[in-house]
Amino acid sequence: MEKLHHYARLVRLDRPIGIYLLLWPTLWALWIAAEGVPDLTILLVFMAGVVLMRSAGCAINDYADREVDPHVARTKTRPLAAGLITPKEALGVFAVLGILSFLLVLLLNGLTIALSLVAVLLAATYPFMKRFHHLPQVHLGAAFAWAIPMAFTAVTGEMPPLVAWLLFLAAVLWTTAYDTMYAMCDREDDLKIGVKSTAILFGQHDRLLIGVLQVLTLLLLAWVGILSSLGGGYWFGLLVAAGLSVYQQWLIRHREPLPSLQAFLNNHWLGMAVFIGLAVDYAF
C-alpha cells in the first residue's frame, strides 16, 4: 500500500491541477466539434485519457528530472527525487499508463488513433526539452493542446477545420503563459542548475510577455467564437477569462514565488469560465 501511495504522488493524483488544465481545452474542443454535448462514449474516453496522459506525463517528467529535482526546493520531496521509488519504477508507471491510454483510443476512429501517436511523442519528449532550449513551456502547450485536433477528428471523423487549429493555437499560448508563471517559482534554482525556461528567457520582460500571450489567447478564442457563431454565454465566459487574466497579472506583479504559483493555479478557473460559457451557449 505504501508503494501505491508513492506511485500516486509520482503521478500527482494529490495535485489535480494539471488534470484540470488539460481537461478544459479538451472539453472546449469536444463541445464546439459536436455543437453541444458530444457522444457519451467519446466524452468518457477523452476524460479518462486526460487523467491517464497527464499522469503518464508526470511520471516521465520526474524520470527526466531525477538528477535535477533533489536540488530544487519545490521538488526535492517528490518520490523519485527522495529515493522512495526507483527510476525503473517511474518508467514502468509511464509505460503502463501510456498503454492504457492507447487502449482507450482504440475505441475511436482510425484518424484519431493516428493523431494519438503524435500525442504520445509530445508527452514523452517534453520533459527533456528544458535541457536543449528555453521554450519547454511551448512544447508543453503543444502536448496539452493536441487533444483539440484529436477531439475534432473523434467527433467528425474528418481532418480538423480551421477553427480547431485556432483553438489549438489559443491553448498553446495559454499554456505557455501559465507555465511561465509556474516557472517563475523556480527561476533562481533553475539558473543555478542550468535548466532552461521561458521565465529565464523572458527575464525582466516576463510580465509583459505573459500579458501579450494572454491577450493573444483571448483574441484567438474570440475568433473561434465568431467562426462558430457562438452567442452571449460564450462571450460572457470570455469576459470572465479576461478579468481572471488581469487578476493573474496583479498576482505576479512582484515576481514572488508563492503569488506566482497562485496565478498559475488560478488558470483552472479561467479554463472553466470559457467552458461554462460554451456549454451554456450551446444549451440555450
- The proportion of residues in beta strands is under 5%
- Number of β-strand runs: 0
Tally the helices: 13
Instruction: Please bin the fraction of helical residues.
Output: over 70%
For the sheet with most strands, the description reads: none
Could you tell me the radius of gyration in angstroms? 18 Å
Shape: globular
Topology as a string of helices (H) and strands (E): HHHHHHHHHHHHH
Give me the secondary-structure category.
Answer: mainly alpha
Mean pLDDT figure: 94
Note poorly predicted spans. none
Calculate the terminal CA-CA distance, rounded to whole Å. Answer: 48 Å
How would you concisely characterize the structure shown here?
The protein has 284 residues and is mainly alpha-helical. The protein is 74% helix and 0% strand.
Structural commentary:
This protein has 284 residues and is mainly α. 74% of the residues lie in helices and 0% in strands. Helix 2 packs antiparallel against helix 8 (162-184) and helix 12 packs antiparallel against helix 13 (257-283). The protein starts with a helix and ends with a helix.
Short key terms for the protein model shown above:
13 helices; mainly alpha; 284 residues; globular
Strand and helix layout:
Layout: H1 2-10, H2 17-34, H3 40-64, H4 87-105, H5 110-125, H6 136-145, H7 147-156, H8 162-184, H9 187-193, H10 198-202, H11 206-227, H12 232-251, H13 257-283
Helix pairs in contact: 2-3, 2-7, 2-8, 2-13, 3-4, 5-6, 5-7, 6-8, 7-8, 8-11, 8-13, 11-12, 12-13
